[in-house]
Design goal:
A six-stranded mixed beta sheet has the order 1-4-3-2-6-5. β2 and β3 form a beta hairpin. The chain is an alpha+beta fold. The longest helix has 19 residues.
Length: about 260
């Protein structure tokens, strides 16, 4: 009976092995790109203050968006051969390409590529291609560009010698763009034609919530105002993750990740 009124400790919304990998990966990214950078760089939000131009789905809007994302990620857009493609018309491939996949809705039989990164071309520029349908959705456009530009930060700048898509997703968080990618990871679709969901990227919804919670914890933001920009499902996972993190400060960033051990 004495346990009737005991308060249950908050659990972690992701499994232990994934949590430990994410914490270790986060620390590595901070070391590679600078602790002070993460602590002081303002986040990017889907607001007119951060994207001060009328977005109309045009090619000009696409380039203006890319300029803002590139500046946020400390990349010179002049070093990139950036273009659009239409997967229904053509598929761009080579042996060194890395793709970001999306499931537009649950009625789709196969996922489509949302973006493609090919490394440097013969002219010495990074080839990055964005699927044209992303122009219809500015938030997904930002998320897709950020993921492809994260390949430049990791592979193009030779921080890594191999491709890791989950780490590429996590890189967007460290550069303060995680709100966009998290919100696009899983979104409900409700209209007169489709009722289902769409997905984007490699991290799962709960993993995005934990990644953003780690970001806020590192920046000592226990209840940041920016969670208002998160979709309800991501916000819920963020709050659950934050509760776990602040209940277990002796574990966070301190336990070792053992990839061979299953939780």
């Amino acid at each position: 009976m004495f346990g009737l009124f005991s308060k249950k400790q908050p659990g972690c919304p992701i499994d232990t092995n994934t949590r430990l990998w994410m914490e270790q990966a986060f620390v590595w990214l901070v070391q590679e790109f600078g602790q002070n950078n993460l602590l002081t760089k303002p986040m990017l939000f889907p607001t007119i203050e951060h994207f001060p131009f009328p977005y109309d789905g045009s090619h000009d809007s696409f380039i203006q968006t890319a300029h803002i994302v590139a500046r946020q990620m400390e990349i010179d857009l002049e070093t990139i051969n950036l273009d659009l493609y239409n997967e229904s018309v053509q598929e761009i491939k080579n042996d060194l390409g890395f793709s970001l996949f999306t499931q537009p809705d649950e009625t789709s039989e196969t996922p489509l590529t949302a973006g493609l990164y090919f490394g440097k071309n013969a002219a010495g520029k990074f080839d990055v291609f964005i699927e044209k349908y992303n122009l219809q959705d500015p938030e997904k456009l930002v998320a897709t560009i950020a993921h492809e530009f994260a390949h430049i930060k990791l592979l193009g700048e030779k921080q890594l010698s191999f491709n890791d898509e989950s780490l590429t997703d996590l890189t967007t968080v460290v550069f303060g763009i995680g709100v966009f990618n998290a919100n696009c990871a899983f979104r409900e679709i409700k209209n007169f034609r489709v009722r289902g969901h769409s997905t984007l990227g490699y991290l799962k919804q709960r993993e995005w919530g934990y990644a953003l919670a780690l970001y806020a914890y590192f920046r000592q933001e226990k209840n940041p105002a920016w969670i208002q920009h998160l979709t309800p499902n991501i916000r819920s996972d963020f709050k659950k993750s934050t509760a776990f993190i602040y209940t277990n400060p002796d574990k966070i960033f301190k336990e070792k990740y053992n990839p061979g051990k299953q939780s």
